[in-house]
Amino acid sequence: MEIRPTTDQDRDVFVDTLHAAFGRFPETPTDGGGVWWSALEMDRNLLAMTADGQPVGTAGAYSFELTLPGEILAPAAGVTAVGVLPSHRRQGVLSAMMRHQLTELRARGEFLSVLLASQALIYRRFGYGPATYTQRLTVPRHQAAFALPRARGAADVPATGSDTDAGTGTGTIELLRRTECGEVLEEVYDRYRRAQPGALSRPHRWWALGAGQPPIAPAPRYVAVHRDADGIPDGYASYSLDKPDTLTVDETIATDDAVSTALARFVLGHDLVTQVVFKHFPPDHPLRWQLADFRAGEVSGDTDWLWVRLLDIPRALTARGWFMDGELVLDVDDPFLGEHGRYLLTVRDGKADCVPTDRAPDLSLDVSDLGSLYLGGTAPSTLVRAGHIRAHRPGATALADALFRAERSPHCLHWF
């Protein structure tokens, strides 16, 4: 078997092989574009070929920026389009491609890799760990009344990062069609993702090609665009009426809590629907607490989203921001690549130093578990209690919890 990089001339073979791996046929592109594979970077993809030249497997990567704790932007390879023909599964093709890809990413100088896992059992063995989480929230419209804020002086206190009150706001909302506001969506999303840990960039070519899922894809959607007091767009909610009685929100993007609340009020106030479904909802979002009936919001589809793998542990740990001082020795095992390292992590004034050490470890963990901790969305203590991380001394777990936390919970909306 040969694993080789692809070129633009391989696009059709790559796409056909990938779809065959999942038992599907490529859909026909619309006039406005919109097929997800139109944004593939062919110089970053791989084909697995048999000795007689037949393609049997695919793996690809996108060039993204990932927002780390501390509002730090770091390059990250977005692994995608991974598939093996049913006729060649369980023959080592997938492992060979993933090992080849990780080696290639390192050769490019990249230190982070991310993916969306089609199956949770597959990618942990390659060193990836779930790092952000998402859920679906369904709110019956007859139970969508908002409670009055109980904080004393709430009407006079701005929401986090905003000059307006989270309950009232001073901006406006304009209802547009998706075809009327592409540039606005791109601009607002880019502002949002730069401040949200766990968020990925959406390169301009994705928007220009209509690649991905709505609202990137040009599928018919209504978009509620929020503008601040100066008329500058600072949030949007993309939605459709998929059923006669259900309004489904693809995503809500807001640069602060006041904008998020205003957009939630807008969609929850829509006439002629009985329920509103938020498809991609952060687990710690305050909306359920803002409703008069706390039980009105029904949570479902609670799942992992972005998985993270560290390719260069010292570079990755020194790249992100930190919010307290401390020192930990991490003993990290990487069985897929046959590597093992022990690192002294020292944090002072928001910056980290990470160097090899022979000191006794504070924590022993798999590289996939370190990926789960990296963005601050999984507490080390959770994995200690689960039996995945071993703490070697009293206090090590509590210190790790405090060190690895982020300024806010990581969340990723982007599908790739």
What's a concise summary of this model?
This protein has helices spanning about 10-20, 95-105, 120-125, 180-195, 205-210, 255-270, 285-290, 315-320, 365-375, 380-385, 395-405; strands spanning about 1-5, 45-50, 55-70, 70-85, 110-115, 130, 135-140, 170-175, 220-225, 235-245, 245-255, 275-280, 300-305, 305-310, 325-335, 340-350, 350-355, 365, 390. It is α+β, with helices and mostly antiparallel strands and about 425 residues long.
Name a few traits of the molecule:
Nonspecific Lipid-transfer Protein, Chain A, 3 domains, 416 residues, Aminopeptidase, seven-stranded mixed sheet
Task: Tell me the major beta sheet.
Answer: 7 strands, mixed
Radius of gyration: 23 Å
Query: Could you say which overall geometry the principal axes of the C-alpha atoms support?
Result: globular
Helix/strand structural class: alpha+beta
Mean pLDDT: 94
The CATH class of the largest domain is Alpha Beta
What CATH calls the topology of the largest domain is Aminopeptidase
Low-confidence residue ranges? 155-167
- By oligomeric state, this entry counts as single chain
Topology, number of strands: 19
Share of residues in helices: 10-25%
CATH architecture classification of the largest domain: 3-Layer(aba) Sandwich
Number of H/I helices:
11
Arrangement of strands in the largest sheet: 1-2-3-4-5-14-6
Name the CATH homologous superfamily of the largest domain. Gcn5-related N-acetyltransferase (GNAT)
Strand content: 25-35%
Protein name: GNAT family N-acetyltransferase
Active site: 123, 416
Subunit structure: Homohexamer; trimer of dimers.
Pfam family, one: Acetyltransf_17
